[in-house]
Structure formats: structure tokens, C-alpha cells
């Protein structure tokens, strides 16, 4: 089944280029594109894309607020942010709103398609530099640290959550822990329920807020 992709980008040339790359790639379908968050909010729920590329710096309503409002409407859709600069604060806010990862607008066709495939397979496209900056940014803004053992996660759930935070695919997690992808999916659904989140990005953002995380004996590197 083809991966259905929609785009929210106010820069028409960039929007057109990305749309053409997606449409011309086997296994992908360009579903729709929008020049503003307001247009996307009004129409994208009808399209129900698998992945929605969203520019962070949109005119009017910004991309982060767009994701925050759309996530409950199309919860099965994965959101990938488009950005010019690797701004940790903006990217963290996007993750907290429900985004899965980000892609710089300067990315070539190969990078775009690779990122979309990664998201569809359960990954989270994000450089290690930004991952560190996001965690640092989150810790600087915390006012009330949570309890040492938040949300009652099991040892296995902590292992899976940490591997999610490292950007690993579901299959990589399954291979590392010696379990099936179906079992990983089951654990992740339980993690989401316990953390009261709806997406990988929100789960990773909440993980980054925990000042204490139990040591995972025997955890894979």
C-alpha cells in the first residue's frame, strides 16, 4: 500500500518541488497540499494522509499550533515538521504538540524520501545534535519535576521508551530486545496510555522531562 503524504507549506516553489518528488517516487502518493495552517485545518481531515509535512513558520497560525489542533482530529497521521534552521526550542514545541520528527527544507529528494520512509516504519527523523538540544531545552524550562517513578512504567516499557527517544525504528527495537514487532507495538500503546500521550513525539518529550530514569540492566546499547 502506498504512503499517502500531504504538505502544509506557504512557500509555493518548495511546496511544488516536494509534491513532485513525492508523486514521482514509487510507493508514495501526493494527496494534497496547502499554503496555510488555516487551509489545512479546514480540509486535510477529509484526506487523512499517512504523513503530513508541516512548515513550522507559517503565516497566521504557525505550524506548531496547526499540529496541536490537527493531532486529535487525525490521530493516525504522522506529522513531520519542515524547518529552515535546526531551532531546538521550536522543534521541541513541535514534538510536544504531536510531531514525530523534522526535516530541513534544504533536504534533497533522497533525504525527504528517507525521512518519510523512516516515519512510516516507526522511526523519528532527528539528528543526534537536535535530540540533545531538545532534551537540554526541556530540562531548562521545567518548574515542577515529576516523581522519581512516574506513571508506573515497567522495566521493559522504560527500555522501549528510551530506544524510541534514541530514534530507533520499531523493528530495531524488536531486534535489540529479542521480541516481535507486534509485542513492541503492544508495549508502545501501553506507554502512550500511561503517559497520556498520543504520539511518539509527545512520548519522547515527556521522557526527556523525567529527571530520574531507572537503570536498565542488560539493556542493549
Keywords:
5-stranded parallel β-sheet; 5 strands; Rossmann fold; 10 helices; 2 domains; 221 residues; single chain; alpha/beta; Arc Repressor Mutant, subunit A
In brief:
By secondary structure, the chain is α/β, with parallel strands linked by helices. The chain has helices spanning 12-23, 37-47, 63-70, 88-97, 109-120, 128-141, 155-165, 170-177, 181-195, 200-209, and strands at 3-8, 28-34, 51-55, 78-83, 101-104.
What does this entry look like structurally?
- With about 220 residues, this protein is α/β, with parallel strands linked by helices.
- It folds into two domains: about 5-135, Rossmann fold, CATH 3.40.50.2300; about 145-210, Winged helix-like DNA-binding domain superfamily/Winged helix DNA-binding domain (Arc Repressor Mutant, subunit A, Orthogonal Bundle).
- The protein is about 50% helix and about 15% strand.
- It contains ten helices and five strands.
- The protein has helices at about 10-25, 35-45, 65-70, 90-95, 110-120, 130-140, 155-165, 170-175, 180-195, 200-210; strands at about 5-10, 30-35, 50-55, 80-85, 100-105.
- It has a five-stranded parallel sheet with strand order 2-1-3-4-5, sandwiched between helices.
- Strand 3, helix 3 (about 65-70) and strand 4 form a beta-alpha-beta unit.
- Helix 7 (about 155-165) crosses helix 10 (about 200-210).
- The longest helix is centred in the last third of the chain and has 15 residues, at about 180-195.
- The chain is globular.
- The two termini are about 35 Å apart.
Amino acid at each position: 500500500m502506498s504512503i499517502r503524504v500531504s504538505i502544509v507549506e506557504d512557500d509555493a516553489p518548495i511546496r511544488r518541488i516536494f509534491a513532485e518528488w513525492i508523486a514521482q517516487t514509487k510507493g508514495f502518493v501526493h494527496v494534497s497540499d496547502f499554503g496555510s495552517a488555516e487551509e489545512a485545518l479546514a480540509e486535510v481531515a477529509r484526506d487523512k494522509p499517512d504523513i503530513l509535512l508541516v512548515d513550522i513558520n507559517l503565516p497566521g497560525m504557525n505550524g506548531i499550533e496547526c499540529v496541536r489542533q490537527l493531532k486529535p482530529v487525525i490521530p493516525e497521521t504522522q506529522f513531520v515538521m519542515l524547518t529552515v534552521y535546526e531551532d531546538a526550542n521550536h522543534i521541541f514545541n513541535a514534538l510536544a504538540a504531536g510531531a514525530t520528527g523534522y526535516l530541513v527544507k534544504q533536504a534533497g529528494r533522497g533525504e525527504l524520501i528517507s525521512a518519510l520512509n523512516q516515519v512510516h516504519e516507526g522511526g523519528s527523523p532527528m539528528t543526534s545534535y537536535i535530540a540533545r538540544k531538545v532534551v537540554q531545552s526541556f530540562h531548562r524550562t521545567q518548574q515542577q519535576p515529576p516523581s522519581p517513578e512516574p506513571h508506573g512504567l515497567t522495566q521493559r516499557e522504560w527500555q522501549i521508551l528510551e530506544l524510541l527517544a534514541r530514534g530507533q525504528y520499531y523493528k530495531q527495537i524488536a531486534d535489540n530486545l529479542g521480541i516481535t514487532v507486534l509485542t513492541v507495538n503492544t508495549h508502545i500503546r501501553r506507554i502512550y496510555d500511561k503517559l497520556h500521550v498520543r504520539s511518539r513525539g509527545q512520548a519522547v518529550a515527556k521522557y526527556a522531562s523525567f529527571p530520574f530514569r531507572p537503570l536498565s540492566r542488560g539493556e542493549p546499547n
